[in-house]
Design brief:
Number of helices: 11
Number of strands: 12
Helix content: 40-55%
Radius of gyration: 24 Å
Order of helices and strands: HHHEHEHEHEEHEHEHEHEEHEE
CATH class of the largest domain: Alpha Beta
Strand content: 15-25%
Shape: elongated
Number of domains: 3
């Protein structure tokens, strides 16, 4: 009982006895098993963060925001990566719920409400990150995807581009859909037509970015600008542009979402719509913890963070020559 009081800092223990117990713990290298107290008090002080692609610097930065906010409040974070796989997502959710996590920060790999409802049915607090899930009452923290794509497209139009193509992600992910809608709105306001080649759906990988751009470059008239909906797609598109013997921005402009950290690219080149990734993770974790402490707002929250446009050297006025690629 005395050892338990020292470990859990509960009940009276004299300073002399406490010192002896702590010395014995250090000498033995004893690590207390917290499962018992966690079950007794129905909390583990553990959060889970389920992301879709930890290799993307956007998610790495967001994860740091989550971890910093959790650490401030005495919570640990378990990180899971789904690779946009529904199967891996289901496996991780099952594992996390069995481990009695207190709360979950969740980037869904689709647009279905069932995984969120499953979490809620287990009385686990959940906040959705980056994406929107219809038909479910849940807290959401995300960037303004519509406005980011609108700003990028409008920038290209103001430079004089008329043949603009958007390279998007899956049609069942809200960020893809919202960015395509922002693109459509900017084109509509400029009275520019949309043809079947104006929108390419794929996924958020570099490989699909390469393939989508390769197909788009075959069109007649050839596009003079690409809007990529994330930085991996932009990298793939750049590869196709280079393979076609073209250059950015002399032959084709390329703009995208989400910046590459300065530690990786000290001289940024791409024109980007930057989401506040760190702030997104930080705010989402604070909102989740507030729910756990019964300190959150009564109504469910949808926090939409603004994006910021950074105009750089990858976008320029179009050249007059416009020929299809083989």
């Amino acid at each position: 009982m005395t050892v338990s009081r020292v470990i859990n800092n509960s009940g009276y223990v004299s300073d002399t006895t406490r010192s002896k117990v702590e010395a014995a713990i250090n000498e033995l290298g004893y690590v207390p098993n917290m499962l018992g107290p966690s079950l007794r008090f129905n909390q583990t002080n553990t959060l889970a963060l389920v992301l879709t692609d930890i290799t993307n610097p956007f998610w790495t930065t967001l994860a740091r925001g989550v971890e910093d906010a959790a650490h401030e409040k005495g919570y640990s974070v378990i990180l899971c990566n789904t690779d946009e796989s529904l199967e891996k997502q289901d496996q991780y959710l099952t594992m996390l719920l069995k481990r009695r996590i207190d709360g979950l920060l969740f980037v869904p790999a689709g647009d279905k409400a069932e995984p969120v409802r499953l979490i809620q049915q287990q009385n686990v607090a959940v906040v959705i990150l980056d994406r929107n899930i219809p038909h479910v009452d849940v807290d959401i923290v995300r960037g303004d995807s519509f406005d980011g794509a609108y700003q990028l497209t409008k920038h290209l139009i103001e430079l004089g581009h008329r043949e603009i193509v958007i390279l998007s992600g899956p049609q069942n992910i809200s960020t893809s859909v919202e960015r395509v809608e922002g693109f459509r709105q900017a084109m509509k306001e400029a009275n520019l037509p949309l043809n079947p080649n104006s929108i390419h759906w794929g996924n958020f990988s570099q490989n699909l970015g390469t393939e989508m751009a390769r197909q788009a470059l075959k069109a007649m008239p050839r596009p003079t600008a690409f809007v990529a909906v994330n930085n991996f797609i932009a990298n793939g598109a750049w590869q196709s542009i280079d393979q076609a013997g073209l250059t950015v921005p002399e032959d084709i402009s390329l703009v995208t979402f989400d910046d590459i950290p300065a530690t990786i690219t000290p001289i940024p080149f791409l024109t980007v719509a930057v989401q506040p990734a760190y702030e997104m993770g930080y705010q989402a974790a604070h909102l989740l913890i507030a729910r756990l402490l019964n300190e959150g707002p009564a109504e469910r929250q949808e926090i939409i963070l603004p994006v910021q446009l950074f105009i750089r050297r990858s976008s320029a006025p179009p050249q007059p020559i416009n020929t299809p690629m083989p």
